[in-house]
Here is the input.
Amino acid sequence: MSEQRERALEILRRLAKEYPHAPPTYLMFSSPFEMLIATILSARATDAGVNKATPELFGRYPDPESLANADIESIAKIIRSCGTYNRKSAYIKATATMLVEDFGGEVPKTLDELIRLPGVNRKTANVVLQVVFGQAEGIVVDTHVMRVSVRLGFSQHDKKPDKIEKDLMQLLPKNKWIDYARFIGTHGRLACKSARPRCSTCPINDLCPSAELFD
Here is the structure.
């Protein structure tokens, strides 16, 4: 085992102990359909903004058929807290339509099928596969995972999530891909923040090459 992989696995062990109740996602959902739509809405938006909109959205349109038949202006009005709401309303209506017409109203379970849906990129598909179906076809690299991974020295491709994902997939065994996104993402939210990371109290500061940069 390489020293880099050994360090990464030790970091995951410590963070799993630090955040035993870390959720697989901070988005609220109660079905695969809701998770898919919420994840599309989360692009360039906060989870809080998405969670503010989705109770009303799913209350009015609880399934693909009802959302596919919805008025796009009504959708846009509901999801204003998600940002770029005109574009996203078109995406989720088109996605709902494709679910009905091409997938029998069900959320597909493969990466190739998911990325065919409007508004679904590789990251969105990975989130749905991992959170809903427990499948690891890749590693979810959101803004928190991206920031922490670069600070830990696991990738040199700052702000390039696709390249960071490839680096992480080479570094980690596949059975750790889901855990990595879960615990590294939570650590980024709660401790390794963008402006003021809490390095002095960080449980992995002795394993982080960037810790001394922020003290």
